[in-house]
Design goal:
OB fold (Dihydrolipoamide Acetyltransferase, E2P); 5-stranded antiparallel β-sheet; SH3 type barrels; 1 helix; mainly beta
């Protein structure tokens, strides 16, 4: 049981109406002459739906009892993503909606943490930073930085498009922050 509204933070797994949710956003709001409120945006780990919920002082908020197991990403068929548990080599699938925006950071063989609720896999968490190869990036044109454009859009090997600096080129391997989706650094040079 969480003791105060301040304990509700981004990334926390909580039990809400009997189902596990992960907090995507949490903003503490205190208005004059009103009680403080924790405004949250949460994602249901079972079906991927997003809910906006306001928690008030005195609301009972319980942390979800999720078990983590190491797993390897195998492949996807468009609707489900398939993984293999590292401890018992059991294969399991998770619906595309439950994997969510982490899809763009997964390539075959990657290691993930599978989250289990009531003995069933419901979601995954990826490493905070991953390394991916650029498969397509336009050339930086001299003078682009004079216009205030110091980034360009590049396509990664997983199909994800992100903004990268002008010096990054096709074939480079870059490190990406999976929480913000931003370029961190070039790994090879």
């Amino acid at each position: 049981m969480l003791s105060s509204l301040n304990d509700i933070k981004k990334g926390l797994n909580i039990l809400y109406e009997g189902e596990p949710y992960v907090v995507a956003e949490a903003n503490f709001v205190r208005m004059q002459q009103r009680k403080p409120v924790m405004q949250t945006k949460m994602k249901n780990l079972l079906n991927g739906k997003v809910a906006q919920v306001n928690f008030h002082p005195g609301d009972r908020v319980e942390e979800a009892d999720l078990m983590r197991k190491k797993a390897d990403y195998l492949y996807n068929d468009g609707t489900n993503y398939y993984f293999m548990s590292q401890d018992d080599f059991e294969q399991f699938s998770i619906a595309k909606e439950s994997v969510g925006d982490k899809i763009g950071y997964l390539k075959e063989g990657d290691k993930v943490d599978a989250l289990y609720f009531n003995g069933n896999p419901v979601s995954i968490s990826v490493l905070p930073k991953v390394e991916l190869r650029i498969v397509s990036a336009p050339e930086g044109v001299k003078g682009d930085s004079a216009q205030g454009r110091v980034t360009k859009t590049a396509e990664l090997e997983t199909g994800l498009n992100i903004q990268v600096p002008l010096f990054v080129k096709e074939g480079d391997v870059i490190r990406i922050n999976t929480e913000s989706g931003e370029y961190v650094e070039r790994v090879n040079g």
